[in-house]
């Protein structure tokens, strides 16, 4: 298993967790944070602590996802190929000729298409 594959698996897991955490939140205060600790009870730390936890976990997962994406670029196997630009190489300049049409197909294309008359 390559390093890039490990990074890819971690990115998928973190992205899934980030989606779950975002979907649990409700901007109007009626989501999971209001069901825990509602009515004055202190279940799981209350509404304020649940909202703080969801907010902090969102930022943490988003930062982790960005870091994993940037680090996965380093882990890509480039196969040892030279990544220098060919446009700047003076010796690598080549000229391309335009494709030529064979003479027998050129005459066929020039003939009008006959349509049946009614």
TrEMBL record:
Q: Which UniProt keywords apply?
A: Cell membrane, Membrane, Protein transport, Translocation, Transmembrane, Transmembrane helix, Transport
Q: Where would you find the membrane-spanning parts of this chain?
A: 6-24, 58-76
| Keyword Protein transport recorded | yes
Look up the domain of life of the source.
Bacteria
Q: What's a Pfam family this protein contains?
A: SecG
For this protein, the record's InterPro entries field holds: SecG
- Cellular location of this protein? Cell membrane
Q: Where is this region: Disordered?
A: 94-118
Polar residues composition-biased segments:
94-106
Per the record, membrane topology reads: Multi-pass membrane protein
* Signal peptide per UniProt: none
Has the keyword Hydrolase been applied to this entry? Answer: no
The text of the family note is: Belongs to the SecG family.
State what this protein does. Involved in protein export. Participates in an early event of protein translocation.
- Name the NCBIfam families for this protein: secG
What is the name listed in the Swiss-Prot or TrEMBL entry for this protein?
A: Protein-export membrane protein SecG
The species this protein was found in: Algibacter aquimarinus
Gene this protein is translated from: secG
